[in-house]
Design a protein that fits this description.
Quinone Oxidoreductase, Chain A, domain 1, 25% helix, alpha/beta, globular
């Protein structure tokens, strides 16, 4: 099989041939059809993840077909359409897992494409607990970005405490944000898109947003307060200053949901205290959350806008993602 691997931190992508791996007990082999390229893959490319072992095959937005299963696997069978996302497994026995907080596993937490080889390949092997069923209604290219960008925005929205009819703002209209706006509208929220530049307004409305705020010419916090204050703001950008500038738009009991990874941002404790407001981070989710995301996307018609590249053009595709110019997710295909 062909894989696109990184042999060392900061090294280039290498297309190499490997033996097709056999699935050990409790693991599933997947014939990969499509894999999204996520900004988090830079942790592998640049060696940003502590203890990362090389060579490593990145990729945690994987969709394909079950090809073989290891001993003891009963949930999955060859021929099923499946996907694997960021959450690659957990121990099930530590206190966090026993409380149902699998993302916080302190013993056996695994990350797809970091703890084990991911989906920039023609085949991959994953723990059975990390595998999600993919509906027939979604093509591999349609489904792949929903395994990370989709689940992260969908899960953040449904855990934001906002209810249908509430005002919800989505900060950023890129790879995460263009999905966040669609999900927010389909969930019944009064949805506001926020981005830089008047040219993003038509896109926000095309995605279904009820209104748009241009943060270059308007004060987004003041504009949200004119609308009554947001019950939730989903921050998808990777700019701490942009996040700080919007926080003041939260209404009473509002929640600022951070899903864009920024090193720092400024928070006003007095503003939080005076309105019983909250700032909360949200982890993508587990395999069942992925299935929920895919099912809702089919039901509501939410779709990712993608640029598609074959596996052998992985370096070009990765650079396209890194440039910020992609509209809006980049997906690799294997031709299988």
């Amino acid at each position: 099989m062909r894989v696109a691997q990184i042999a060392r931190a900061g090294g280039p992508f290498e297309i190499v041939e490997r033996e097709i791996p056999q699935p050990d007990a409790g693991r599933v082999r997947i014939k990969v059809q499509a894999c999204g390229i996520c900004h988090s893959d830079s942790a592998v490319k640049e060696g940003l993840w502590p203890g990362l072992q090389y060579p490593r095959v990145p990729g945690h937005e994987v969709v394909g077909v079950v090809d073989a299963v290891g001993a003891g696997v009963t949930r999955w069978k060859p021929g099923q359409r499946v996907g694997v996302g960021w959450h690659g497994g957990h121990c099930g026995l530590c206190d966090a897992c026993r409380n149902g907080d699998f993302f916080g596993c302190t013993v056996g937490l695994q990350i797809t494409g970091i703890s084990f080889d991911g989906g920039y390949a023609e085949y991959m092997v994953a723990p059975e607990i990390a595998v999600a069923l993919v509906p027939e209604d979604l093509s591999p290219v349609e489904a792949a970005p929903l395994m990370c960008a989709g689940i992260t925005t969908y899960n953040a929205l449904r855990n934001s405490h906002a209810r249908p009819g509430d005002l919800v703002a989505v900060l950023g209209l890129g790879g995460l944000g263009h999905l966040g706006v669609q999900y927010a509208v389909k969930m019944g929220f009064k949805t506001v898109g926020i981005a830089r530049g008047a040219d993003k307004g038509p896109l926000a409305r095309k995605l279904g947003a009820h209104s748009y705020i241009d943060s270059q010419t308007q004060d987004p916090a003041a504009e949200l307060q004119k609308l009554g204050g947001a019950k939730a703001i989903i921050a998808t950008v990777t700019n701490g200053d942009a996040m700080s500038a919007v926080q003041g738009g939260l209404g009473l009991n509002g929640t600022f949901m951070v899903i864009g990874a920024v090193p720092t941002m400024t928070v006003s404790p007095l503003f939080l205290l005076s309105g019983r407001r909250a700032i909360k981070g949200w982890y993508s989710g587990t395999a069942i959350d992925s299935q929920d995301t895919l099912a809702f996307s089919v039901l509501s018609g939410v779709r990712s806008m993608n640029e598609v590249y074959p596996l052998e053009r992985v370096a070009e595709a990765y650079q396209r993602m890194e440039s910020g110019q992609a509209r809006f997710r980049v997906v690799l295909t294997t031709g299988q």
